[in-house]
Amino acid sequence: MTPTQHPPEKMMFQLTLRRRGISDQAVLRTMEEVPRDEFVDEADREGAYRDSALPIACGQTISQPFVVAYMTEQLQLRKQHRVLEIGAGSGYQAAVLSRLAGQVLTVERYRKLADTARARLEKLGCHNVEVMLGDGLNLPPNIGPFDRIIVTAAVEQLPENLIERLEVGGILIAPVGPHQGVQTLIRLTRTEAGIERRELVEVRFVPALPGVAREL
C-alpha cells in the first residue's frame, strides 16, 4: 500500500460527504474516483482527504471536499453540458466536472496554476477540459454560451458578463459577498421568463480578482 492511497481517510471522506447531505450518486462516485491527493502539494498529501481547504501556489486554495461536492451537485450536470469554470486553481474542481459534463472550459489568471492544472488534468486523462489563461471576470465576447457556469472565488456581486453567457435552462453558481469574510453561495437559473435566484449556504472563498496576474 503506497502512502498516497489513504484507505481509512478515503472511507471517512465518502462518509462525511453523505452525512453532510450529498446524495447524488454520480457526484459521490466521481468524488471517490478523482484522486484529490494528486491536486495538492506533496507536503499536504497526508491531509488531502480531510474535509478542509488546503493552500496551493499563488496564495490560492483547493476548496474543501464538501464544498466541491455541494457546488457540483447544485449544477445538476448532464453529459451534454458545456461548463465554464472561473478559477481553475489546482484543477481539482475541473477534474470532477469533466467526469459529469461533456466539455469544460476552466479559466485561470495565474500562469503557474494554469500550467500545473493543465498537466495534472492531462495526466489523469481529462481530455474534455481546456485550461485557459485569462481574466475570468472579463472574457472575450466569442466565448460561450454555456449550460453551466461555476465561479470558485468570491465576487462582491455577480458579473453580468457571466450571466449573459448562460443558455436558457442554464445554471450559474458562485460565492457572493465581501472578499474578506463570509459569502453566500448563490444559484441562478435562466428561464424563458428571466433569471431565478436562490441563496444556498454560507462559504468562504479567496477573492476573485480582475485581470491576468503579471507574475506567477
TrEMBL record:
Pfam families: PCMT. It catalyses: [protein]-L-isoaspartate + S-adenosyl-L-methionine = [protein]-L-isoaspartate alpha-methyl ester + S-adenosyl-L-homocysteine. InterPro entries: PCMT, SAM-dependent_MTases_sf. One of its GO terms (biological process) is protein repair. CDD domains: AdoMet_MTases (cd02440). It is an enzyme of class 2 (transferase). GO terms for cellular component: cytoplasm. Its main location: cytoplasm. Keywords: Cytoplasm, Methyltransferase, S-adenosyl-L-methionine, Transferase. It is found in: Cytoplasm. Gene3D superfamilies: Vaccinia Virus protein VP39. The active site is at 63. Belongs to the methyltransferase superfamily. L-isoaspartyl/D-aspartyl protein methyltransferase family. NCBIfam families: pimt, PRK00312.1. Catalyzes the methyl esterification of L-isoaspartyl residues in peptides and proteins that result from spontaneous decomposition of normal L-aspartyl and L-asparaginyl residues. It plays a role in the repair and/or degradation of damaged proteins. This is Protein-L-isoaspartate O-methyltransferase. The lineage of its organism: Bacteria, Pseudomonadati, Pseudomonadota, Alphaproteobacteria, Hyphomicrobiales.
